[in-house]
Design a protein that fits this description.
heterodimer, A: about 425 residues, alpha/beta, nine-stranded mixed β-sheet, globular, disordered N terminus, B: about 475 residues, mainly alpha, two-stranded antiparallel sheet, 23 helices
Chain lengths: ~425, ~475
Amino acid sequence: MPVTRRQFIKRGAGMVTVGLVIPRVWLADARGEQVEFTPKRKLVVIQLAGGNDGFNTVVPYTDARYYSLRPTLGLRETELKTSDGSSTIISSQYGLHPAMGEIKDLYDEGRVAIVLGVGYPNPNLSHFLSMDIWHTADTNGSGSRGWLGKYADLALIGQSNLTAASIGSLDLPRSFGADKFVVPNIINFSLYNFIADPNYPGDYNNQINTFNVGASRALSTGSFIGAINNTAFESVRGAQQLQRSVSSYKSSISYPANNPLAAGLQMVAQLMTTVPEASLLYVQMGGFDNHSDQIGDKQNDRSNKLVGDHATLLKWFSEAVKLFHDDVTEHGLADDVVVMQWSEFGRRPGENASFGTDHGTAASIFVIGNPVRGGLYGVQPSLASTELDPAGNVKFKVDNREVYATVLERWLGADSKTVLGAQYPNIGFLG
Amino acid sequence: MTTITYEEAAHLLRRMGFGGSPADIDDITSRGREGAVDFLTNYEQIDNREMDDLLRRSFDFSDPLDFPKFNRGELLRWWFTRMTYTRRPFEEKMTLFWHNHFATSASKTGDLFIYNQNLTLRSHALDQFDDLLLRVARDPAMLIWLDGVTNVRGKPNENFARELQELFTMGITDVVTGEANYSEEDVKEIARAFTGWKFFRVRNDPNPFNYQFIVNPPEHDNTVKTIYNGTQSARTGNLDGADVIEVICARRATARYLVKKIFEFFVYPLVPGTSDNATIEKFADVYVSRNHSIKELVRAIFTSDEFFSQRARFGLVKSPVEIIVGPIRMLGARYNPGASARDGAANILAAVSIFLGQELFNPPDVSGWKLNLGWINTSTLLNRFTYANLLVINRTRDLNAPGLWLSHEQLRSFAKKNSKKTLKKLLSILGPLEVDAQMFAALRTYMESDDQGNPIGFALDDLTLDKKVRGLIHLIMCLSEFQLN
């Protein structure tokens, strides 16, 4: 087992994030390069942190190599059915993990695109570097701007309302690193507020007005204080809008309290249905670094593959996405919403000795929603021993930037070349 | 004696500690530059009995297995109580520096060992670096955190060997010359040198916190290792971890890296180039000539012109701990830690620190917290504002109630006869901060406005104090200027 580059501790299964980008209306340099803003179209990015096991998510159940590499963890064809017995097989070659019944239903309705074999050149097995490579859409993972931040700098400048946000974590995902935009990150709505002395509610407006004098000052750019002041302005402005809006959210959908991704996606739904401009949102769920006990119950019984850490996470993912889809459907927004999932890498096809899998390379990803052309895209990497690299990992088949380019061009209507630095092929799952 | 101004003394106290009251700052001013730095660094000579008594009354860390009395919440309450009450602020600040430098998380080590590590860092914070490093490397927390305990002959684990070089001593490349400091081969060889490092508990030892380091012979790789082959630091032989630490500490790259890390934590961020490289070299020379003494190094840094330069003044972003503890000390607010973390608002400071993005004993990863703008995003900033509000709205009159409050009597001591003087006083106490004329005017307008925003002037009555002076402190703590250190 390779040495984990860094202790990967902070992204436990309980952490979720949604991201919201707030634009700077007065930015004078927002001219020329601006692309048409289509506020109706909304993108939700779900990051599954830790490295999701693509081979046990979209199972190649006719590939004998899969079973020889995974004698214990491999999901048999007979096991590809949900707890109520419905098959999760989606094609003559692939079946979804049996915990993903809801996604299977959406797939059958033509609302799920699965892109096989997504990765990037010269794969890096460090969580941190690999995440940075995905966040920045740059194979070095360097640079301060993320792909969504670049898009926001380009397309969302000039919008006066809350257009984008990250939800659930104290860190802003690097995908949102931007030059001009300050993207809010919201842990929860009640904390996201400018609060003053409750003993003197009449003084609140004086407080806010005085605060805004400070936060509206043009302090030196490129300095700590300039950056802090920009963030200060956006945080309070966004908070006020948020507090006015989100309380009007009503829905018949009940999101289970024990599903951390559902909690995040409910906040996304709340924002989208109450802030019409909210169009770029980001949630994350951790816990996918399944080096051990990927399957098995507390008594280490490995017989029921619906039980185990990975099954729980995929169940949360599947259930949360379905509830979110139902929620936006109820609000008449389902035709305007695309959900895109990613993870920093897949896992090694060969299982390890601890009933888990080590860091891998390419994996399948999901793009979900009414606007999506459902089906299988990309190419499954070969599991033949001659095709694996020295660490036992597969070769990627689809560059992650092709996924980004497809979403940017075909859904957000953005110039993907400007955002990604080069032209990448359209995979075809949208538009 | 080089004299220092009140503003310089306040700067010194904010950086070497968490800021001080006007009386604290006057005291530092009177000592002069070298005198003040000597006073703050020779902290073992400062009477700290008041804090020690409070700790004795408020905590019972006699049994690590007594969970209600010894747990992570209690450890956080304990450290915040220390930082708030100590008369030896630099002892806590330096411990905080080392906690960030040797960033270790209790999520993996457990509470007992993270506590032991904290004691080690505090007791040896200003010792010779080589000695501190060896102690930390042999401490159970590090042996668990970077998998030393599973690093055994034949199956080496490279985790510690890598971070020892990359994060704790030299960096991947020399911070001045940019040359590579080590190879992947060195990581492998050094991992072998550290094989068999273990800890154990002495049987029948009456101190339940006492663990001993040992090299377990059957698990230690007793063969020849070659490190830094082809460089001036090359060594071949049956090296043990202690030998490796000695070799690494003797390298100029370590002196430079350590100087940069300490300087950037306490003074200002350095930029690549001749000028700042010269600064690194200057202090690296001090460090080397003083036998790697941390105390001599920090003494040189804190008495330097760089430290008192305009570039340094408010040239860092306050960390969450500085945001939390600083104003309590500056304003003379009260924090009553109570007798248990579960006792009302006893652990309020720890709770706030988590929402501000700095959970002590649980750094994000082994590289520590991202400083300066790494602390700032819309959520952490709103949470800073919420803390500022929390500090001013608690008017607790029950002195026995655990929690945080700012008394009316304390407010009255800030009040001057008009809004201008009162504002100046509070800006001075909370910095001293300099704000531009537009901001100053806006804050005065706030002080003199009724709820409809009409000017009604500023009167020194109890209502104005309770409403507008509290509100003013909140607003000053929300200023971007206040976020700087």
